[in-house]
Write a structure and sequence with these properties.
alpha/beta; eight-stranded mixed beta sheet; Rossmann fold; 23% strand; six-stranded parallel beta sheet; binds cytidine-5'-triphosphate; 2 domains; elongated
Length: 407
């Protein structure tokens, strides 16, 4: 169903090719699209609204001044409540009207009122098609962003005439519609709840100071967005970042490691969890209620550090452990050996190991836009070439989908 859920507004112009538009309705609906028809007065000389209505299983709109239709739907809503407007057959008259902004009937008014893509399938006598006025109108329409399919060469209804002007076949028009609307993306992760952690954590020392790291959240946020694009119900728990919340993702904001752990635990159960956050390993044992002041003669304060909870390890060994647990490993040395050790210690199924040693002060990966990772799991090691964090996210989301669907 390449056009599943897509809404097509089909404007049928007056020409003998209108009979092919009836077949077009059927072909579009077979592919999952819903079709609503507008017919010009001339079109009704060739095919009936009854036929178009029966095939589209919807009301057919014919009159700009029909009080009931205008009250119920209205030509503005008609033109907006569609993903694509298809004009087939597009007569010289309809092309001329839209090119010049005329709107004296329902079809032309709808075309002028729309903010959606328009696809025209012209059909007319070859002389009309090659007339300078039609050529001018076509050029204007193309400049305005209207797409065209056909016309084709071949015999015309008038047996004596041949040349360019025959309307494209219904399946050619369908292919053009699919090219514009694109195949409906697959949603292999529909119905899967996935937790993602992202960004750094801030561990307060006092009300104005904190311990942090260089994580920007770019990789974690990109992964959350890529999983959502595959249909997952993504719950992002984000440390302090300057990035916008990814679209289509439920985002929760936290500051410290302990807040992040609590948020993640509250989200269980889930099908999968991806731990991308660069959680601070340590925090100060206490956080001062007031700003720590310099006191003359006393020297700098000594901060006693304690370990933060390891969120990944906690979830990796949790009684409600998600079926798939993915961790990251930021390493500057012995990347593979450390990643393999983390896999075991933290109870993860997959560790995405990235070498943060390259770049100034490790800033190449932390905060940068590119990443080079190795995918470490029980089944071995996969090395990915250097690519953007966006690409890493897309590939990792596909890998997660494959593992979740297989299990
Ligand atoms: N992680 C976590 N909670 C922590 C520390 C790390 O959930 N308190 C997660 C990270 O999100 C990441 C993985 O554990 O998925 C590895 O983090 P990393 O900092 O590379 O490793 P560490 O556990 O800190 O080990 P080491 O300091 O020895 O490198």
């Amino acid at each position: 169903m390449t056009l599943s859920g897509k809404r097509i507004l089909l404007i049928i112009g007056g020409g003998i090719a209108a009979y092919k538009s009836l077949d077009l309705i059927r072909r579009l609906r077979e592919r999952g699209a819903s079709v609503r028809c507008v017919m010009t007065a001339a079109a009704q000389q060739f095919v009936t609204p009854l036929a178009a209505g029966a095939l589209s299983a919807d009301h057919v709109f014919t009159d700009l001044f029909d009080r009931q239709d205008e009250q119920d739907v209205g030509h503005i809503r008609l033109s907006r409540e569609a993903d694509l407007l298809v004009v087939a057959p597009a007569t010289a008259d309809l092309m001329g009207k839209l090119a010049n902004g005329l709107a004296d009937d329902l079809a032309s008014a709808v075309l002028l009122a729309t903010d959606k893509q328009v696809l025209m399938a012209p059909a007319m006598n070859p002389r009309m098609w090659s007339h300078p006025a039609t050529r001018r109108n076509r050029a204007t329409l193309e400049k305005d962003g209207v797409a065209f399919v056909g016309p084709n060469k071949g015999e015309m209804a008038e047996a004596t005439e041949a040349g360019e002007g025959r309307m494209a076949e219904p399946l050619e028009i369908v292919a053009a519609v699919e090219a514009i609307l694109g195949p409906v993306p697959e949603k292999p992760l529909a119905g899967k709840k996935i937790i993602v952690t992202s960004g750094p954590t801030h561990e307060p020392i006092d009300p104005v100071r904190y311990i942090a790291n260089r994580s920007s959240g770019k990789q974690g946020h990109a992964i959350a967005a890529a999983l959502a694009a595959l249909g997952a119900d993504v719950r992002l728990v984000s440390g302090p970042v300057t990035l916008a919340d990814p679209a289509g993702v439920t985002t929760q904001h936290v500051e410290s490691a302990r807040q992040m752990r609590d948020a993640v635990e509250a989200l269980l159960p889930a099908h999968a969890a991806v731990f991308v956050a660069a959680v601070a390993d340590w925090r100060t044992e206490t956080s001062a209620g007031e700003k720590i002041k310099k006191v003359a003669g006393e020297g700098p304060p000594v901060l006693k550090m304690v370990e933060n909870p390891d969120i990944l390890a906690g979830i990796g060994h949790h009684s409600s452990r998600p079926g798939l647990v993915v961790g990251f490993a930021a390493e500057t040395q012995d990347v593979l050996r450390n990643a393999e050790a983390k896999l075991k210690k933290k109870g993860a199924d997959v560790i995405v190991a990235n070498d943060v040693s390259h770049g100034e002060d490790g800033a190449g990966v932390m905060g940068g836009d590119r990443n080079r990772v190795k995918i470490v799991s029980k089944s071995g090691v996969e090395e990915w070439s250097e690519m953007t964090k966006q690409e890493v996210a897309t590939r990792l989301a596909a890998l997660i989908a494959e593992r979740l669907v297989r299990s």
